[in-house]
Amino acid sequence: MIGAGIAIAILLIAQLITWVLVKRNPDRNYTELKLRLKTWWLIIAVFTAAIAFNRATSAFVFCFISFLAFKEYLTLAPWRRTDYPVLFFAYLAIPIQYYWVSIGWYGMFIIWIPVYVFLLLPMCMMWIGETKGFLNAAGTLHWGLMTTVFSLSHMAFLLALPDKSEVASGDSLVFFLIFLTQLNDVAQYVWGKNFGRTKVVPKVSPNKTLEGLLGGVFTTTLVCWALAPFFTPLTVGESIGCGILIGMTGFVGDVVMSAVKRDIGVKDSGNLLPGHGGILDRLDSLTFTAPLFFHFIRYFHY
């Protein structure tokens, strides 16, 4: 809950800065900034609710987030009308995955979607009998489940890890992961906006620059090193490695989702979050940082 308090304090400061900007520059348009702040209040409220109650309630909240992300993904991705029955089983896989989280069964949590659902869905498609576009449909469906459900469910399983100390509890790890991932996005944007010259992946995301990437990773690593003793059991060396990991993989998650949207021909994944786009636009970096942070900290400390 300390993390939620810090996030609320940061948002209050941002709200105050916005109010001053509007007062000092009444002719400038700050509508998008105001929308982004409103949406951030909603995001903080949801994640606070996710970690404030027992593990079952937390799993339900994270399950709903994965459901919204998967549903949004399916509105973008091309799939066959003949696969309607298969979608039922794909959606059914979501609450089952979070049930394993709620009871803390790591063995099933880690193989349910990568193994059982991976085998079950093509089997269902085979019984339907439509072979045209079979491989594309199976790949599209499973990639969606892996990114929006399996990857994101690692965030929820952080809550099932045993407390290592008074400060390193499950909810502090969730806050640490989300805060650093979002900070990395903002830092890369600010560094790129002010110093960006060299394009990194111009065909996928023309606005991403090497200077933005390196500046973001540096900022994230610095903050990770400074905050790790208050929220995690990481040592100094591990916190530096963790900062680099979150900085680099957050960037990769962002541009991979950009590649998907560019392939489909859309700018935003949706309009669920005013000022941000769709839920996938907000969670794209987390689809990479959540599982990697989870296994990084589990390897060293659990």
Keywords:
mainly alpha; 302 residues
How would you characterize this protein structure?
By secondary structure, this protein is an all-alpha fold. The chain is built from twelve helices and no strands. It is 76% helix and 0% strand. The longest helix is centred in the C-terminal third of the chain and has 29 residues.
Element layout with pairings:
Blueprint: H1 2-24, H2 31-52, H3 55-76, H4 84-102, H5 106-109, H6 112-128, H7 134-157, H8 170-195, H9 210-231, H10 236-264, H11 279-283, H12 286-301
Helix pairs in contact: 1-2, 1-8, 2-3, 3-4, 3-7, 4-6, 4-7, 6-7, 7-12, 8-9, 8-10, 9-10, 10-12
- Provide the low-confidence segments as ranges: none
The number of helical runs is 12
The structural class is: mainly alpha
Order of helices and strands: HHHHHHHHHHHH
Which bin fits the share of residues in helices? Answer: over 70%
